[in-house]
């Protein structure tokens, strides 16, 4: 019984993650406090990538950039596999799901991968961080253009990003610039960073908790629990869970079937199965202006929270394996 419970008992970080979700539900930040938290989170993310850049040797960065098979597989999972899974839920349209909610499921499946938490989970699990940085950033950049095009194919919707160059610039400024800066300063910082490996681990976990609290708190402040009927919320949660339950094992099997090693399998699983709420909301405001934006974005919000909890457990499981 003790051995069985030790396998099922959540680890400390997973408990902290669930506690953060509960805190964001009960005490979400709004107004000036929320904007301050966003700025602080941006600084924490920048610090995370700066430290990763300072720790990683030049050979690892070049290998991450040139790992084209890994990037191609992640993009195929994000922009091909997920849209096909979204179409598989078509029989639920108008029955379990309202037309607006099903449109939201299709929108979820067309979104790019999230960047910050994908890389943080990859680092926590001991995966190929340079490849994750490149793959997740590339997915977000391409998603600015591919998501509206995919929605036009999947749902007949028309629209696009109002200023895609601004979105690309924001990604570069927040993630790649600190990473490059840290890497350029590696000759002076390498020894200190090697002595502070525990600091990197806590920075990874703290960044994930900040992203969870900010994203979930914003959703609650916008009326996630108040404006959504319980039956609809349960249906969306079930569809999101089924989607994640199909995607993560399927992507894991595919990565192993194609001969990727453990370090490469980890970023493939995390970058290929995650969807970005931060990128999705601005795109939704353009694509669905004047429509039922709340219902359309709801599947993205639910899937976003679910993927963080599940990926945290998967990352800890990877980390425990030799």
Descriptive overview:
This protein has 322 residues and is mainly α. The chain has a single domain, classed as Na+/H+ antiporter like fold (Up-down Bundle). Helix content is 81%, strand content 0%. The protein is built from 15 helices and no strands. It has helices at residues 2-8, 12-26, 31-55, 58-66, 68-88, 99-110, 116-125, 129-155, 164-184, 186-195, 197-221, 230-257, 262-273, 277-287, 293-320. The longest helix is centred in the C-terminal third of the chain and has 28 residues, at 230-257. The radius of gyration is 19 Å and the shape is globular. Residues 157-164 have low confidence and may be disordered.
Set out the fold topology.
Elements: H1 2-8, H2 12-26, H3 31-55, H4 58-66, H5 68-88, H6 99-110, H7 116-125, H8 129-155, H9 164-184, H10 186-195, H11 197-221, H12 230-257, H13 262-273, H14 277-287, H15 293-320
Helix pairs in contact: 2-11, 2-15, 3-9, 3-10, 3-11, 4-8, 5-6, 5-8, 5-12, 5-13, 6-8, 6-15, 7-8, 7-11, 7-13, 7-15, 8-9, 8-13, 12-13, 12-15, 14-15
Structure, briefly:
The chain is mainly α and 322 residues long. 81% of the residues lie in helices and 0% in strands.
In sequence order, what are the helices and strands, one letter per element? HHHHHHHHHHHHHHH
Radius of gyration computed on alpha carbons: 19 Å
Question: What is the tally of helical segments?
Answer: 15
CATH fold call: Na+/H+ antiporter like fold
Helix content: over 70%
Low-confidence runs of at least 5 consecutive residues: 157-164
| Strand fraction | under 5%
What structural class should be given to the helix and strand makeup?
mainly alpha
Tally of separate domains: 1
CATH class wording:
Mainly Alpha
Mean pLDDT across residues: 79
Distance between the termini: 25 Å
Tell me what the CATH architecture is: Up-down Bundle
Number of strands: 0
Query: Major β-sheet, in short?
Result: none
Quick one: overall form? globular
């Amino acid at each position: 019984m003790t051995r069985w419970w030790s396998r099922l008992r959540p680890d400390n970080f997973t408990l902290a993650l669930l506690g953060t979700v509960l805190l964001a539900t009960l005490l979400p930040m709004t107004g000036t406090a929320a904007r301050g938290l966003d700025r602080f989170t941006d600084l924490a993310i920048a610090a995370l990538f700066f430290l990763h850049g300072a720790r990683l040797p030049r050979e690892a960065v070049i290998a991450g950039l040139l790992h084209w098979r890994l990037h191609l597989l992640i993009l195929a999972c994000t922009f091909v596999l997920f849209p096909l899974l979204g179409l598989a839920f078509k029989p639920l349209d108008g029955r379990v799901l309202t037309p607006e909610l099903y449109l939201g499921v299709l929108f979820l499946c067309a979104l790019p991968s999230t960047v910050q938490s994908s890389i943080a989970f990859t680092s926590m699990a001991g995966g190929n961080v340079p490849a994750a940085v490149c793959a997740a950033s590339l997915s977000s950049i391409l998603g600015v253009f591919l998501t509206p095009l995919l929605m036009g194919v999947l749902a007949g919707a028309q629209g696009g990003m109002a200023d895609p160059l601004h979105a690309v610039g924001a990604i570069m400024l927040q993630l790649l610039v600190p990473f490059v800066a840290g890497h350029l300063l590696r000759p002076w910082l390498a020894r200190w960073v090697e002595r502070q490996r525990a600091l990197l681990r806590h920075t990874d976990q703290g960044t994930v908790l900040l992203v969870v609290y900010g994203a979930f708190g914003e959703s609650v402040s916008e009326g996630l629990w108040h404006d959504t009927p319980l039956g609809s919320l349960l249906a969306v949660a079930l569809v999101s869970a089924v989607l994640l339950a199909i995607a993560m094992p399927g992507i894991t099997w595919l990565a192993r079937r194609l001969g990727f090693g453990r370090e490469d399998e980890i970023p493939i699983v995390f970058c290929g199965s995650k969807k970005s709420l931060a990128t999705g909301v601005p795109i939704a405001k353009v694509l669905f202006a004047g429509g039922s934006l709340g219902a359309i974005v709801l599947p993205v919000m639910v899937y976003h929270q679910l993927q963080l909890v599940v990926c945290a457990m998967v990352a800890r499981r990877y980390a425990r394996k030799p």
